[in-house]
Amino acid sequence: MHTKLERIRELDARAVRYSVELVGQAASTDLDRPTPCAGWTLADLLGHMTAQHRGFGKAAAGDGGDRTHWAIAPLGTDPAATYRESADALIAAFAEVAGEEVEFDLPEFGVDRGFPAVEAIGFHFIDYLVHGWDVARALGVPFEPEADLVTAGLPIALAVPDTDHRLRPGAAFAPSLDGWDRTRALDRILLYLGRSPRWPATTG
């Protein structure tokens, strides 16, 4: 039987690898496309996703408190390859986490405490499940994660507080949208985390 750490690590790795598949479909001409993340192009989104992989990887190794590890850097001439390298490094870093008692420093979360490994990797998992959808919508390609990723992601998404902190600049998620409690699991995740499943037909 998997431990909680093994389970969330495995879910996260699969979500990240799926995001790599989606990013790999982007051409250089796609980088200026808008995304469901308000004000961000696909290039902006990939810069953020790559930086977060690097920051979480350093946090897994005990050095997340250094904010320079979270800084967005140029993606270079092959953004998809840069993203894939950061994803591979992140998966490897999470695989080295020794146990559930390991704490991650996540300064971008705005709290002065560490997060237990299962919780921290859960944050990363739901973020990349949703960011995979962001990439797919920006590219206009299907988003078809394995069903158990969505099932596992729903309670993690619903545990994110829906408070005024979501209105702050740089907040990970926008306030929830109406109807999040009356639809299928993937749409519930998206709506609760402030994204319209019908984007770009509506704002979200």
UniProtKB/TrEMBL annotation:
Phylogenetic classification of the source organism: Bacteria, Bacillati, Actinomycetota, Actinomycetes, Kitasatosporales
Pfam family of the protein (one): MDMPI_N
The name this protein goes by in its record: TIGR03086 family protein
SUPFAM superfamilies registered for this protein in UniProt: DinB/YfiT-like putative metalloenzymes
Organism of derivation: Embleya hyalina
InterPro entries: CHP03086 (IPR017520), DinB/YfiT-like (IPR034660), Maleyloyr_isom (IPR017517), MDMPI_metal-binding (IPR024344)
Molecular function via GO: metal ion binding
Limits of the Mycothiol-dependent maleylpyruvate isomerase metal-binding domain: 15-136
